[in-house]
Design goal:
The protein is 56% helix and 9% strand. It is α+β, with helices and mostly antiparallel strands. It folds into three domains: 1-66, no CATH class; 69-229, no CATH class; 235-336, Arc Repressor Mutant, subunit A (Orthogonal Bundle). The protein has a five-stranded mixed beta sheet with strand order 3-4-7-5-6. A two-stranded antiparallel sheet has the order 1-2. A hairpin with a 2-residue loop joins strand 3 (115-121) and strand 4. Helix 6 (85-91) packs antiparallel against helix 7 (96-105), helix 6 (85-91) runs antiparallel to helix 11 (213-230) and helix 15 (278-296) crosses helix 18 (328-336). The radius of gyration is 22 Å and the shape is globular.
C-alpha cells in the first residue's frame, strides 16, 4: 500500500528562509510559485504540502551562491525543539539508539525526504539514508540536509561523549566532502556503497539523562494523533496536490480522476461528500497562486493568466475582480505600496 503524503508545519520552513536570508536571498524569491504567503508563515497552525515544500527548496537552491555542501550546513541548523512534539519524544527516549528507532516510526513528522533505516553491524549502530526517491535536481542538497539534521539531533540528544564514528556518502568528493569534514569534525568516507551515519553501538545504547518512561509514552501517543491529522487522506487534498504538481491548473476533472485511479463520477461524488467540488478547488488554488505571484513577481498579466490556466487575460481579470473587487493590476499596486 502506498504511504499517504503528510503535511509539514510551515514554522519548520522558517529555518530554510533564515538560511537563505543569511545568503542575501529574500523571502519573495524563496516563496515564488509555492502558494505560501507571508501571513501563512506567521500562523503556527499553517501546513505545507510536499509539493509546496519542494518548490520552496528548489527556489533556494537556484538562488544560492556557488558554495560546497550548502545542504549539510542547512541541516545543522535544525534542533530538537524545531520539530515540536516529535523532537521532544526523541529527547525522552531511553537511549540514542531507541530515540533514532522511534524517530523512524514517526519520520513523516520531521522534514526528511530521504528514506532512513537503521541496523546493527558488529559494534556499530548505523543510520542509512536513501535519497533515490527525491527529484534528481534536489537529491544531493536534501541528502546533505537530512544527514546534517540527523547528526545535529544525535549530538543534541547525547549531550556528552563522542558517539558518531564517521559519515559515509555514496557520490561525494572534493570540496563538498572537505566542507562536511570541516562542519562536522568527523571523518567522511566518499564513494561509499551507501549514505550513512555510523555510531559506536555501546555509546548509542547508553541511557540518556533525559529519559522519562511515562512522558515518552504520552508524547508518542501525541505523535500518532498528529500524524493522523496531517496525512493528506482526503480526496480534496490529493486533488490539490495534482493541481500544484505535475498535472497543473490546466488539467480537467477527467485527467485528475485518471491520475487518482478513480472514475470521473466517483471523484465528483467523493468531493461532494467532503463539501467541495473540482471547480471550487481549481478556483481556490488559482486565487492563492495569483495573490502570491502578483505580490512577489513582475510577471506580465497575460503570462500569469496562461500560468493559471485561463484562456485569456480578460477571463483572469474577471475572476480576480470577483475575488477581490479590484483588478490584478490594482491589487499589485496596493501590495507594492
Amino acid at each position: 500500500m502506498a504511504v499517504e503524503p503528510v503535511l509539514h508545519s510551515l514554522t519548520i520552513s522558517q529555518v530554510i528562509l533564515n538560511f537563505a536570508a543569511d545568503r542575501g536571498i529574500d523571502s519573495d524569491t524563496c516563496l515564488a510559485g509555492t502558494g505560501i504567503t507571508p501571513a501563512m508563515l506567521q500562523d503556527p497552525n499553517a501546513l505545507a504540502s510536499p509539493e509546496q515544500e519542494m518548490r520552496l527548496i528548489e527556489n533556494v537552491i537556484l538562488a544560492l551562491p556557488d558554495e560546497p555542501a550548502p545542504g549539510f550546513e542547512l541541516g545543522l541548523r535544525y534542533s530538537v525543539s524545531t520539530f515540536g512534539v516529535w523532537g521532544f519524544t526523541l529527547r525522552t527516549s531511553r537511549s540514542l539508539r531507541e530515540a533514532m528507532e522511534r524517530a523512524l516510526r514517526y519520520i513523516a513528522l520531521s522534514t526528511a525526504y530521504c528514506v532512513f533505516s537503521s541496523a546493527v553491524e558488529g559494534d556499530s549502530f548505523v543510520m542509512c539514508a536513501d535519497p533515490s526517491g527525491i527529484p534528481v535536481q534536489l537529491r544531493q542538497f536534501l541528502l546533505e540536509r537530512d544527514v546534517g539534521t540527523a547528526l545535529n539531533l544525535m549530538r543534541e540528544l547525547q549531550l556528552t561523549g563522542r558517539v558518531v564514528r564517521h559519515l559515509e556518502f555514496g557520490g561525494l568528493d572534493g570540496e563538498a566532502a572537505d566542507r562536511i569534514r570541516q562542519l562536522s569534525g568527523l571523518p567522511v568516507r566518499c564513494q561509499a556503497r551507501r549514505n550513512a551515519i555510523v555510531m559506536d553501538l555501546t555509546a548509542a545504547s547508553t541511557p540518556l539523562p533525559t529519559f522519562d518512561e511515562h512522558l515518552v509514552r504520552v508524547l508518542e501517543d501525541q505523535c500518532r494523533q498528529l500524524l493522523e491529522r496531517r496525512q493528506i487522506e482526503g480526496v480534496a487534498g490529493r486533488v490539490r496536490q495534482q493541481l500544484l504538481g505535475g498535472l497543473g491548473l490546466v488539467s480537467c476533472l477527467d485527467e485528475v480522476a485518471r491520475t487518482l485511479n478513480l472514475s470521473s463520477r466517483s471523484l465528483r461524488r467523493r468531493l461532494e461528500d467532503e463539501g467541495t467540488s473540482f471547480r471550487d478547488l481549481v478556483e481556490d488554488t488559482r486565487r492563492q497562486l495569483a495573490e502570491q505571484m502578483l505580490g512577489t513577481t513582475d510577471m506580465k498579466l497575460d503570462e500569469l493568466a496562461v500560468h493559471l490556466g485561463y484562456a485569456d487575460t480578460a477571463s483572469f481579470t474577471r475572476a480576480f475582480r470577483r475575488w477581490h473587487g479590484v483588478s490584478p493590476g490594482q491589487y499589485r499596486l496596493q501590495r507594492s505600496g
